[in-house]
Amino acid sequence: LKHFQFRAFSPSRPNVPASLMPIRTTTSMVPHCDNKIIPHHAGVHTTGALGEILKKDELEKHATCKFILRPWQKRTFQLYETGLAYYTDKQDHQKFIPMASISELRLERTNRFEILVTWEDGSKSDQHRLRADSDEKTEEWFTVIKPLVYEARSSSLSE
To answer: What is the pLDDT of residues 93-107, one digit of tens each?
Structure first.
């Protein structure tokens, strides 16, 4: 198992800034389609270690695997100041994307509005296409995520 470190607000220590609160989570590497091995984050969103949920809703994520029957998959997304967590109803697939690792965030329109999230994970880059059940909700998610990404970028540059 590999350990990742990220920052979160601690209700038990409210006077300590989030930037000084290291929280460790475990991540294991699991097989994925096309024989790729990807990180699988232990359910940090269920422990409360990430702080307050800023926004929560069911969104659709476009499958990264090309060999799937239904390319749009429903996931529950939880937005935190520190990142974006998502998981399936059965919680058999869970992932956390730290805000500081997001390198690009765009709102694009194909048939419907989609949010394109690109992030860096070590030496590789990954991307998700996300959409809500309406264009209005998709725009709302984009509007809430965007300032958090910019804040995380400026914080990581000043450290």
So the answer is: 788 999 999 999 999
